[in-house]
Amino acid sequence: EKANIGVVGLAAMGAALSRNLARNGNTVAVFNRSSWRTDELIKEHGEEGKFIPAHTLEEFVNSLEKPRTVIIMVKAGAPTEAFIQKLADLFEPGDIIIDGGNTYFKDTMRREKEMAERGIHFVGCGISGGEQGALLGPSMMPGGPEESWKKLGPIFESIAAKAEDGSPCVTHIGENGAGHFVKMVHNGIEYADMQLIAESYDLLRRGLGLSPAEIADIFDEWNKTELNSYLIEITAEVLHHVDEKTGKPFIDIIKDQAQMKGTGTWTVQTALDLPVPVSAIAEAVFARGLSERVEQREEAQKNILAGPTPHVELSDEEKKAFIEDVRHALYASKIIAYAQGFDEISEGARQYNWTIDLGAVARIWRAGCIIRAQFLNRISDAYDSGEITSSLVFNPYFKKSLEEAQNSWRNVVAKAALGGIPVPAFSSCLSYYDALRSDRLPAALIQGQRDLFGAHTYGRVDKPGVFHTLWAEDGQHEVEETR
Ligand code: NBP
């Protein structure tokens, strides 16, 4: 018997994915550079399903049925590139190579083109959910040629996470780099969501002086509301955790420096190129960056930067209401962050000629991935209803939620500013909301400045055309540019 799918790279992710495939009725060829990993997988989990272990790449390729289909799960970068080339040399036209790592979508687009010239189907597939997800059901975002989906669809559907309604969390996202693009934005949204939760925590902790355990209980309660999500759930878990050695809240043991591996940065860089304002994601990336600027932070601690001792000025009765305000502000900001992320996907689709079903993207994020949440049902419903015009915020449900939250939202941002608590994501989301609803933006002034110093021209509100004022002459005369 031959294998209907193969996995190259059997570290945490690859081994988990191989087991998931085998457990769900696939015959899985497995290969790893160091053969001990292959042997260990078979020894420990060989009875979970049908595996065909291989110790050379040739043996591995020969154990695959045609069209040969292989998922590469080795270290991103050069090792992944090397395996793609080695497999391509052994493959025939029609065979499928899948890159399951977090690859930059433009690299995927380039590779897909190269492989297509050799007749090989190349599929960049975003996989979310970490090792647990890979084993028990990830959310999967495959791109690549539509034709490859005929073979991959049933295999991926067999292993993907299942949403509450039983539907598998995988769909063919679009051609070439679309899958990795959507995975990238997923991670960007994840950054924003985490930052918003972290700001909420800070407001309750330093603002109201609540203990981590009390805040954990609040997040447990919030998880029963429209905020219900994996990230809120694990926030409560982290905050409930106590350091065994010292008895201190564990959160106080962890260094306050948030690291990153790059997908958030790519999301923002890509958004800048398009350009789409993803201010919540950008603030989240910058906030992590600031947290790691240890030298500057230490210098600021030496009393160089004056300001209030972080607090929120409130009576005891008002505190309860403020906790509710933070909850509303979190929800409203989350709506903005997701709306911005979906804007980036729709703008990316336009730029790179992908047909992406945004409702389907929301659906496959409902389970298996880090941002899984009830909330995503609202987003998919909104897209499926056809009620969305140019942004999620105009969908009646989200519009109403934003409007209902806005007094709380404003109160939280104002109190945070007065009390010296940084809320970059909350305040940028609120500013985005206010900018979007402004009938006149100060952009008019910027365009006036640009025309003055650089003759960059401007449009007029009262007639069509492109104009330039002769500022240097008398400032009174205007010329109409013909283009
Ligand atoms: P790692 O990223 O730690 O990579 C380990 C694997 O790469 C091993 O199979 C190792 O083989 C192989 N490898 C290395 Br390292 N250098 C190699 C080389 N020069 N030639 C051939 N093979 C080489 O594994 P992972 O954490 O399982 O992640 C796999 C992929 O999945 C990555 O691209 C990652 O970005 C992606 N991903 C990870 C997560 C996650 O939560 N961890 C989530 C989503 C996607 P060896 O055994 O012989 O050293």
From TrEMBL:
It catalyses: 6-phospho-D-gluconate + NADP(+) = D-ribulose 5-phosphate + CO2 + NADPH. This is 6-phosphogluconate dehydrogenase, decarboxylating. Gene3D superfamilies: 6-Phosphogluconate Dehydrogenase, domain 3 (1.20.5.320), N-(1-d-carboxylethyl)-l-norvaline Dehydrogenase, domain 2 (1.10.1040.10), NAD(P)-binding Rossmann-like Domain (3.40.50.720). SUPFAM superfamilies: 6-phosphogluconate dehydrogenase C-terminal domain-like, NAD(P)-binding Rossmann-fold domains. Substrate binds at residues 102, 128-130, 186-187, 191, 261, 288, 450, 456. The lineage of its organism: Bacteria, Bacillati, Actinomycetota, Actinomycetes, Bifidobacteriales. Pathway: Carbohydrate degradation; pentose phosphate pathway; D-ribulose 5-phosphate from D-glucose 6-phosphate (oxidative stage): step 3/3. Catalyzes the oxidative decarboxylation of 6-phosphogluconate to ribulose 5-phosphate and CO(2), with concomitant reduction of NADP to NADPH. One of its GO terms (biological process) is D-gluconate metabolic process. It comes from Aeriscardovia aeriphila.
